[in-house]
Design a protein that fits this description.
Its cofactor is Zn(2+); Mg(2+). Pfam families: Alk_phosphatase (PF00245), GDPD_2 (PF13653). By secondary structure, this protein is an alpha/beta fold. 34% of the residues lie in helices and 21% in strands. The protein contains 20 helices and 24 strands.
Length: 609
């Protein structure tokens, strides 16, 4: 009796531990695994925790097949599953995988009667007893035409059974139950789209709760089998996700650590005064904030993370920008940045030139003729594509040394960001000082710098997650302070560069932490606009990165679950937010080149007064 209680306690602890574990491929079940193009090995190399094989007893052998017509001498239980498992476990010195304690559940669905199948199965499994639980890492669980619960004790201890939630097992019988399964359709007709109805969800969670109370893992068969359904099943707490799409589910589950994020430091958003927001009065200063790679999904991910609040969500005047390059449906940052900086569409990879690779004037150059000074800020390298488009003219974005030298001829008064290593390798500091431009490679020098100046500190432009701390806000404040007074006007471009980096990396936490950091700079820009009533703030993106979709989230907890369709840019339109006088001009849908045209027209119009 003590041994039975100990077995039940261990089973309960094991199931409880499994239900609280994160979802990895160890919690995936390859349904009808033998129908995969490469049975067993496809699931094994995805590190699945469970595989299923239908078995027929015939001519004193066990054949793996969906029906008797598919029986073949090459497809026996031993050849497809037991021999490969034994060989791999020997190779890995008793483990499924080297240095890993993962177990594999081999769910054997008996298609022929227990009376005819069990003697053959017991004889067959005896040869592999050393790899079978509790001695080894392979747990045999029988389903289908199993012996009755009253007969469980008649078979070896390394054979476990797939129970049913509606069956009342005795404690002795329950000790032999390794899994409890049921048809999903018994509780719901949900097809995997949308959400479960409240009664259906209650029925399913009720089953899961009862099974877990017994200390057993739970599985449902015939569940919807696609990404949205997998997420819902995980939310329900099902222990094994049933699939016929082994590689797809494997990739999805491996990406879980990069897909989920809970923002732990929500911030208060700015309360806008909307000073001159819906009127076309004088504009002396323009702040253009570019969230590189920022699409609507990135924005809403940030809003979700910050508990439903975002500075961007308080803008009243919103438009959409079409981002294609001259030579491609999908732009890169070089062509996207050039379109906004020069008003010209160009080829991907080109900086500050037209489609013929001929230099075209950018906003700082055009505005300088009117006495309007400019600043360029980036939370990444200042020689990267987007910021470079506002001061350089080169046929290829990779030409960072040439881009750096272009700054010596530019009309930009203030340059703040990373890229110190490039400037130093080209010995730019002396050339800048010769032109009366101050240079520093130390962030701590920001407060004492006076325009014109260049401040580049690579250590200060790491990601938020790596400890960047405050960067965009103090950089923006400094540039605004230096350029705001005693002049006809100013133009500041500040880039949240690393929203894009997170999209390329397909890491939701990276995207969200950069998005929320950028949004705090947006709030500061709104405050600056309200402080004088003559500052126009425009917030947009050069393109969207990652094809991000949001599969789940919690506005109260700041939890975001995202899924990426690519590790590159996409072609979707990006929003344009505007705040302050003339913000109405940015409503509608237009080419990204129109952002340049609108800014130039507004600033030069009032510089003449």
């Amino acid at each position: 009796m003590k041994k039975l209680l100990l077995l039940l306690l261990c089973a309960s602890l094991s199931a409880s531990a499994q239900s609280s574990l994160p979802y990895t491929t160890a919690r995936a079940h390859s349904h009808n695994d033998y129908e995969q193009p490469v049975p067993f090995y496809t699931a094994y190399y995805q590190h699945f925790g469970s595989v299923e094989a239908d078995v027929f007893a015939q001519d004193d052998s066990l054949y793996v097949s969906h029906e008797t017509a598919g029986i073949s001498d090459a497809r026996t239980l031993s050849r497809l599953y037991l021999d490969p498992l034994a060989g791999l476990i020997r190779k890995n010195k008793g483990a499924l995988y080297t240095g890993d304690k993962q177990e594999l559940q081999l769910l054997i669905d008996l298609k022929t009667s227990a009376a005819s199948t069990m003697p053959i199965l017991v004889r067959e499994l005896r040869r592999y007893e050393d790899i079978l639980a509790p001695k080894g890492p392979v747990r045999i669980v029988l389903s289908g035409n199993t012996p009755s619960p009253a007969e469980f004790d008649n078979f070896p201890a390394y054979i476990f059974y797939d129970g049913r939630p509606e069956v009342a097992y005795t404690p002795a019988q329950l000790a032999h139950v390794g899994l409890i399964s049921q048809a999903f359709s018994k509780y719901t007709r949900w097809n995997g789209k949308g959400v479960l109805t409240a009664p259906d969800k209650a029925a399913i969670t009720g089953v899961i709760t009862r099974v877990h109370a017994l200390g057993k893992p739970v599985r449902f068969w015939a569940t919807p089998d696609h990404v949205n359904a997998w997420k819902m099943l995980m939310n329900l707490g099902i222990d094994y996700i049933n699939t016929d799409h082994v590689e797809e589910l494997g990739a999805y589950l491996r990406a879980r650590p990069q897909a989920e994020f809970t923002f732990s430091q929500p911030y208060a958003t700015y309360k806008p005064a909307y000073r001159n927001n819906d009127v076309r009065t004088e504009v002396k200063h323009v702040i253009l904030l570019i969230g590189d790679g920022m699409g609507l999904a990135q924005i809403y991910a940030g809003l979700t993370a910050n508990r439903g609040q975002l500075n961007l969500a308080k803008f009243l005047n919103i438009g959409f920008s079409k981002t294609n390059a001259s030579d491609s449906y999908i732009t890169d940052s070089a062509a996207g940045g050039t379109a906004m900086a020069t008003g010209k569409k160009t080829r991907n990879r080109a900086i500050g030139v037209d489609t013929n690779l001929v230099a075209v004037p950018n906003l700082p150059e055009k505005l300088k003729k009117h006495g309007i000074r400019s600043a360029v800020i980036s939370a990444g390298s200042i020689t990267d594509a987007t910021p470079a488009a506002f001061y350089a003219h080169q046929p290829y974005r990779e030409m960072e040394k040439e881009i750096a030298h272009d700054f010596l001829k530019s009309s930009v008064d203030i340059l703040i960001g990373g890229g110190k290593s490039v400037f130093e390798s080209e010995k730019m500091a002396d050339s800048l000082r010769a032109r009366s431009v101050k240079f520093s490679g130390q962030w701590d020098d920001l407060a004492k710098m006076k325009a014109p100046f260049v401040l580049l500190d690579d250590a200060k432009t790491v990601s938020v997650q790596k400890g960047r701390g405050e960067f965009l806000i103090p950089a923006l404040q400094k540039a605004y302070q230096e350029l705001h007074t005693g002049r006809p006007g100013s133009f500041i471009m500040a880039e949240g560069a690393q929203i894009d980096y997170g999209g390329h990396a397909n890491v939701v936490s990276y995207v969200v932490s950069e998005m929320t950091d950028f949004d705090q700079a947006v709030g500061e820009a709104m405050r600056l606009a309200d402080s004088d009533g003559k500052t126009l703030v425009i917030v947009t993106a050069d393109h969207e990165t990652g094809g991000l979709t949001l599969l789940d989230g919690d506005l109260q907890k700041g939890y975001v679950d995202g899924h990426f369709s690519t590790n590159d840019h996409t072609a979707i339109m990006v929003p344009v937010f505007a705040y302050g006088p003339h913000s109405l001009d940015f409503r509608g849908t237009y080419e990204n080149t129109e952002i340049y045209e609108k800014i130039l027209a507004i600033l030069t119009r009032y510089s003449k007064k």
